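thought: user wants a sequence for this fold. calling inverse folding tool.
action: design(structure=
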């Protein structure tokens, strides 16, 4: 290697060093500017979100459920799911979910109609359809699930009423519904799935003359005087199956549970 080559080496290393330094400097500069732009964009996005939340308030879901409700089911032979009955189970399946949704029921209790409804051993636990412990934001999805479970509870009560002392103590079933606890606010809604054919040892229309309106009024007064009526203050009783026999239950989905022959009356 000659003297000129030895002299050129330091100059080449110095030039390479300067080039590397300039490349590193430019790369670092670009990285810094990119990070600054990204940070600015994120800040702007967060600021816009904050403005939206400030202007519109918190993003809340649907209002919570609050009403107290009960389902009373008739386990007598007249509720058989055949041409000779009013098809209690069909009507239960067709009406309970829509009833719970329409009345915004949060708490659901159950009562049977049997030969001796008040003393019946049939029990189904009261349900909370909108529990505080469930923190999911999609309440509609939760309610769909809990209403399905509530319908299953009504079916369980009906099956028990049919198996144990089947009969037609309708007033006793209403008395059971009147005694359940109430935690919600407003009107108490009671769905009664029955033909309302009252029949028990203390309630026999056959021993009265019923030809004239006056005779019928006298019969009703006498029966009520002996048996009494359930105390149902601030209550709406929704009737499904009243005086019905035979015929399949095919409610129109658009008209919901009211399409199954439901009626209501209110006591204060």
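)
observation: tool returned 268 residues.
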């Amino acid at each position: 290697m000659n003297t000129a080559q030895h002299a050129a080496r330091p100059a080449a290393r110095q030039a390479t060093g300067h080039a590397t330094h300039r490349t590193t400097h430019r790369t670092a500069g670009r990285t810094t500017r990119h990070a600054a732009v990204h940070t600015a964009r994120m800040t702007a996005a967060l600021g816009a979100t904050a403005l939206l939340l400030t202007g519109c308030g918190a993003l809340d879901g649907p209002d919570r459920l609050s009403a107290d409700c009960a389902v009373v089911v008739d386990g007598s032979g007249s509720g058989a799911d055949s041409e000779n009955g009013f098809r209690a189970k069909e009507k239960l399946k067709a009406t309970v979910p829509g009833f719970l949704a329409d009345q915004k029921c949060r708490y659901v209790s159950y009562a049977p109609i049997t030969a001796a409804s008040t003393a019946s051993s049939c029990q189904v636990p009261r349900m909370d359809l909108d529990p505080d412990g469930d923190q999911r934001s999609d309440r509609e999805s939760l309610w769909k699930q809990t209403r399905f479970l509530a319908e299953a509870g009504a079916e369980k009560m009906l099956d028990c009423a049919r198996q144990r002392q089947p009969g037609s103590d309708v007033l006793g079933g209403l008395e059971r519904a009147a005694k359940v606890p109430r935690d919600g606010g407003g009107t108490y809604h009671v769905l009664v799935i029955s033909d309302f054919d009252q029949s028990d040892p203390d309630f026999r229309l056959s021993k009265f003359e019923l030809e004239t309106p006056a005779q019928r009024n006298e019969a009703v007064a006498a029966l009520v005087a002996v048996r009494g009526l359930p105390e149902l203050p601030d209550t709406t009783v929704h009737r499904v199956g009243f005086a019905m026999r035979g015929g399949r239950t095919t409610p129109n989905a658009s008209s919901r549970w009211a399409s199954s022959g439901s009626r209501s009356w209110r006591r204060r």
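thought: summarizing for user.
answer: Here is the designed sequence. The longest strand covers residues 105-113.
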